[in-house]
Amino acid sequence: MKFSDINKQQQDGQPKQMQQRQPGFESEMNPEPIYDDPEYKGTGKLQDKVVILTGGDSGIGRAVAVAFAKEGAKLSIIYADEHEDAQKTKALVEKYNGECLLIPGDVGEEAFCFSAVKKTVDHFGQLDCLINNAAEQHFQENIEDISLEQFDRTFKTNIYGAFHFIKAAKPHLREGSTIINTVSVVAYEGMPVLMDYSATKGALLALTRSLSENMVSEGIRVNGVAPGPIWTPLIPASFPADKVAEFGTDSPMGRPGQPVELAPAYVHLASEDSSYMSGQVIHINGGKIVNG
C-alpha cells in the first residue's frame, strides 16, 4: 500500500469515539484500521512455519496474521473473547491459503498459555515462531487512581502473558526459531497517562534483550517491534473520546500509523532475512527519533 494512499485516508483524522470494554472491538471502530495491503505479495519466506500469535484477532495482530498467511505460515491465534473479530481474521488467513487455529483465553493465566502451546503443537506438529503481541492499557492521569487491580491486570496481560508463553514454547523451539515481542515507544520515552502500561513495556524490552543473550547459543533469535501511535482497538477502548479524535497527530508524520505498516517488520524478524539479528528492536513510530 502506498504511503500517499494511507496519508490521504488519514488526513481528516478519526471522529470522537469510545468503547466501554477492554480489549476493544475492531468491528466497532470508525474508520476501521487498515490491515491488508493488496500490493503485498508473499514469496514463501515463512512457508510451512508454525506461528503462535497472541492478540491476533485485531489491530497489529490481524495485519501480521494476514502478511504471515501470504508468506505461507500456519497460525495459531490467541485472543481473549473477541470472537467476531477473531473469526474475521481467520477468514482472512484462509483467503490467502493459510491455516488458522483460534484459541480464546486469558494470557495472564499460566495454565492457559501452556495449554495453548500444547494445542498448537498437537494440531500442527511443530512450533517455529512465537509472537507476544497481546496487551491492554488504561488511561489514568494520576498514579493515585491506578488501582492495585488495574496494575495487576495490566502486568498479567502484558508481561506475565509473554513470560508464560515463552516458558511454554521454549521446549518446542529449535535452531532457526524466533521470538518476537511487541514492545512500544513508551518503553523508551514513557507516557504520563499510561504509567503502568509503560512499565510493562519497559519490562518486556528488558526481557527481550536478556532472553536474546540467553538463547542465542541455541540458535533461537529474540527481537522486538516498538510501535508508536497505531490505530488499533486499544485506542478507543483506552482513551477519552476527545483524545481519540486527535490520536497520533503529534507524531512527526502528523497521523497515527496503520497496522498494515507494521506487518512487514514482523515478517522480516520471523524469516531468514533477519538471520544476523537478535536482541534488537525495530522502531515504527511515524518518524520519532528513539535512541536505545
Automatic annotation (TrEMBL):
Residues 1-42 are annotated as: Disordered. One of its GO terms (molecular function) is oxidoreductase activity, acting on CH-OH group of donors. The keyword Transport does not apply. Keywords: Oxidoreductase. It comes from the Bacteria. Gene3D superfamilies: NAD(P)-binding Rossmann-like Domain. GO terms for biological process: bile acid metabolic process. Residues 9-22 have a biased composition (Low complexity). Belongs to the short-chain dehydrogenases/reductases (SDR) family. NCBIfam families: PRK06701.1 (NF005214). This is NAD(P)-dependent dehydrogenase, short-chain alcohol dehydrogenase family.
